[in-house]
Amino acid sequence: MTPRAASPEKMHTLVIGAGQAGLATSYWLTQHGVEHQVLDRRDKLGGAWQDRWDSFYLNTPNFSFLLPDLTYSGTEPERFLPRDTVIGLFRDYAQRIAAPVRLGAEVLRIAQTDGGFAVETGRGAWLAHNVVLANGAFQLPRIPPAAVGLPPHVTQLHSHDYRNPAQLPPGAVLVVGTGQSGGQITEDLLDAGREVHLSVSACPEAPRRYRGQDILYWILQVNLHGPAYGINGLQVDQLPSPAARFMCNPLLSGNGGGHSIRLRGLGRRGVRLHGRFEGTDDGGLVFTDDLPQRLALVEAGFGQRLKLMADAYISAAGIDAPPAEPVTADDWLPSESGARLDLAAEGITSVIWCTGYGLDFSFLDIPVLDQWNYPRHTRGVTEVPGLYAVGLPWLTKHLSATLSVVGADAEFMAEHLAAR
After folding, report:
1. Residue 19: CA atoms inside 13 Å, Cβ hemisphere, count?
2. What are phi and psi of 265, to 5 degrees?
């Protein structure tokens, strides 16, 4: 006889993901007395921070920890935490708030049933009245289709799988993308004495400090308090289009006490800068032939958006902040940067794709996703009763996926869920 499948476990609310969004959600559900279980595909707590490279530091200062029952009260609010400290911090947090986490429980399918949801996992099935999608924004590493044109002897890694320079074979390295990961991994390789080529994207540079504060301080204030002064540019309803939810974050680093990353500065250190990577052609790497224009675009980005909002907030709130430091013009350009690079002649043996992530809701057998694979929702409450989302970029505002805002979004969502 075929053994009978075990009956589904029943639970009032299931939270998918035990990263910062899932743990913040668990905290607030507990405060409201909501029976719940947190499911996570990983075997260990620590969320997506476990996917960062060895030398990684948080880009956000200690003062930006605003999770429920996890705020910073030490003597170094403007310092930055290394990866392993962050992982340990979240493991301690889960234990302190007694989050009911079940590890190694990858969710395979979620479908609607009468009065709730059927959830299939690698460790059994569940029936739940509510489901909270808290599986984060760093799920599917994006690698451009042009990657298939690279010869098989070239090692390819996404930033998701990069850990340190010793992982890579001897030879030069091409880093594709100049978001935060691309800039920081380039510095990591440089510090190890590696020869680096860097394909420049459109992510904006920004000063690490601006008008007397870490730039994240002003970004956080505009996120949290800007609307009270009529400054709404970092609220989700002010986005020019839904696609803008996936725009680049400013190019910054928390390493070495925190610093800006300037692409021209990397070039002066020996990094070979190129335009956007287009693909391969007969043993060559092809880039757009527009490096000067790209560098100008990257450098202008801060002044066109975040600077204006920070200045407007400082003025409207009547804050006595020092004036902005004058920006020194920099017209440095490499002596050569054509649109084509000979792979063999340059000795490039590795490519690291710092090209971001896509959302992964492939397990969701419910028609609630828009064309960008993003749940249709209002403040995390989806159009499907009982289905919620938290911890996604621009869920309610610019910093919704960060340690600073995810707790407040989780609190609102938990209140709505508890009132159902």
Report:
1. 22
2. -65, -40
What's the domain count of the chain? 2
pTM: 0.95
Residues 148-197: tens digit of each pLDDT: 999 999 999 999 999 999 999 999 999 999 999 999 999 999 999 999 99
CATH of the domain at 192: 3.50.50.60
Q: Compute how many other C-beta atoms are within 10 angstroms of the C-beta atom of residue 117.
A: 22
Q: Are residues 260 and 325 in the same domain?
A: yes
Share of the chain above pLDDT 90, in %: 93
Q: Give the whole-angstrom CA distance, residue 408 versus residue 131.
A: 18
pLDDT tens for each residue of 228-271: 999 999 999 999 999 999 999 999 999 999 999 999 999 999 99
Does residue 1 form part of some domain? no
Question: Cα–Cα–Cα angle for 387, 109, 142, nearest 5°?
Answer: 90
Q: What is the number of other CB atoms lying within 10 angstroms of the CB of residue 210?
A: 24
The one-letter amino acid at 375:
P
Q: What are the CA-CA distances from residue 284 to residues 34, 92, 200, 227 (Å)?
A: 58, 49, 17, 50
Whether 189 and 326 map to the same domain: the answer is yes
The residue range of the domain holding 55 is 9-139+359-418
Contact (CB, 8 A) for 302 and 205? yes
